[in-house]
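User: I'm writing a tutorial on reading structure tokens. Could you give me a worked example: one chain, its sequence, then its tokens, then a sentence or two explaining what the tokens reveal?
Assistant: Sure. Here is the example chain.
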Amino acid sequence: MPIGLIALALGGFGIGLTEFVIMGLLPEVAADFRVTEATAGWLISGYALAVVVGALLLTAAVTRFDRKPVLAALMVLFIAGNLVSATAPDYTLMMVGRIIAALAHGAFFGIGAVVAASMVAPTKKAGAIAIMFTGLTAANVLGVPFGTMLGQAAGWRSTFWAITGIGVLALVGIVALVPKTGGGDAAAGGLRGELRAFRSGQVWLSIFVTILGYGGMFGAFTYIAFTLTEVTGFSAATVPWLLILFGVGLFIGNTLGGKAADRNVDRTLLVVLAALVVVLVVFALTSANQPMTIGSMVLLGGFGFATVPGLQMRVMKYADGAPTLASGANIGAFNVGNALGAWIGGVTITAGLGYTSPIWAGAGITLLGLGVMAFAAVAAKKDTQRGVMADDAGRPAPSAAGSEAVRADAELQRL
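And here are its predicted structure tokens:
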């Protein structure tokens, strides 16, 4: 395993910690700034929206540059954002710090996925992406519980000081360990070449699968504390430990999902999404049973995050020789899915359907994502067959749409 992947995973760990640890520290932040918890909650929503903006606009702005210094610059931006958060004298500057850090989030994971894939053999690319995202899963398993405990014991600012330190370590690691990556995507035509990737129907289908598949899982997870306490009957003190089990599932799913996607991306996504639908349905039906709920928590995390390497890999595969912006857009799509799932889950609770309703809604959203994925897989297979038949007959290659999968495989070899 290239040691540079560890530096990328450490950056992912810090970014994941920044995104999620605030959830456990909202009461302290709200009390310190003398705002309501609902107002403090905008520190989460504002971050998610800024991730989408950064994933698209910031990634687009740096497509011509060497990816290694870009990653280093993004980590500097991340450090600056958390430094502002740690020292913010008021709510407004705290929000500014959150937005600055979030702008680096989408671009870092989008560009980092391309760099990670370029560091290994073609048959191990999804696994390399999974290693980078291991930092994000580790943030959920270890970082969030311990970051929350640190913030509660020494003040919430101490957690953001710690995250700032993690960012500095990741920056040093990227500079020292990540190999040079060449001249970015200048050869592919810069920003115009990157935008060409969005002519691909398969890129758009992959992005829709990301929104729906990940959105279904996150919609169920957003209100999980209410389900665990109000439906299953666990005490509030038990919830953090149950979330660690969910995080363990994330870690296992991310690792195994990456290995499986290296063998066959589309088949892996179809199987994992189908399994996720089943897990969500079983969870909703058995949420009053504590042992079943514990098992469902682990499986929800496992199958939910097993989709991540494959979804990221699929977008890059069909990005027509210019994967950076499409990769960043897919990172934004994960956050759109987060927002969509959380919103629909909230609507079902507001409608009086109970605290299992977000799980049922998540199952429905994921089922829709499975349908889109099935359509995309069939279309990709037909395109590949048309390309092969044309070659066998000695005719010129078909249109760009007809040879899309063949060109995508060639691009994976180039990365």
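What the tokens reveal: The two ends are 17 Å apart (CA to CA). Residues 388-415 have pLDDT under 50 and may be disordered.
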